[in-house]
Amino acid sequence: MSPSWNKEVAAALAPKGRTLVITLGSTLRADDGVGPYVCSHVKFSRPELRLLDAGTTPENIAQTAIDWHPDKVILVDAAHFQGRAGEVRVIPLEAINQAMPISTHSFPLSVTFSIIKEDTGCELAVIGVQAKSLDYKEGLSPEAEKSASELAAYFNKIGNL
Are 133 and 143 within 8 A, CB to CB? Predict the structure, then answer.
């Protein structure tokens, strides 16, 4: 676990039964590529863990998530919560539309994930990585890449126990 993560983040990242990790974002919008970066660097070998990259249209994977019947869903995305670049925080579902870079998602995230939570009864954890830039350019800032790399390393560790 990263020394920069607090207990709330550590608890939110802990798997629980069938755990689905959903990453969001666009590699064409600088630090909004945190989610796709994590997804491309994680491989689970345990059948009770699953990874989905929703890109910028999480509503397109909602039914897949519901059909898998997860006990827990962990959402990973870039966020804007006035923290320091690369900081990792848990975002409450009711604050998701304010904290997540809504301009890159075509449908409100809170609606999509409220439906998944309601239909499955799963626990939902939203993990945001403070973006330094959401400019139209490829590549993560060093701060966001460090956090994304730490998240990927954590998921690989739990996913291959």
Answer: no
